[in-house]
Amino acid sequence: MVRYWNLFKDDSVLPLIQTYLAFFLYAFNDQTKRFRNFMAYDRHWLEESGSDDSQGRTLGALADTLLYAPNDSVAGIASASSSRPCPPRGNSSPRGRGPGPSSPATPSSSASEAPAR
Question: What's 35's DSSP letter?
Fold first, then answer.
């Protein structure tokens, strides 16, 4: 939404930006130091902390908000929210693990061990 505002300077989206920032503030779990991701219709959280992917997306959205903030108030909230620590939970996502030993990206033998043709 802040990118849209930055392109078009459309002040009609400012209430939406404030609503989304309020959700980020509400989604942060002070006990786990991570952002939650899923909320039920009755507004209770369905998890204690979101996935590593949702943490990265949240921090990316806060960085965009800080970069393209339409005013100092929005920039201040984005800065305070993004500076909270979000410790990793380990490699819970396959994307965070990288190629394994049997991956084609990792050669299993050296050139000197290659079979002769």
Answer: E
- Residue whose token pair is 């943490």: 55
Q: Are 55 and 86 in contact (CB under 8 A)?
A: yes
The pTM assigned to this predicted structure is: 0.72
User: Residue 38's CB: how many other CB atoms inside 10 A?
Assistant: 11
What pLDDT was estimated at residue 117? Answer: 47
| Cα(22)–Cα(66) distance, integer angstroms | 15
**34: burial class by Cβ within 10 Å (0-12, 13-18, 19+)?**
buried
Distance CA 13, CA 72 (A): 16
For residue 96, give every residue at least 6 positions away whose Cβ sits within 8 Å of its Cβ, in sequence order, or none: 52
> Is the separation of the CB atoms in 27 and 37 below 8 Å?
yes
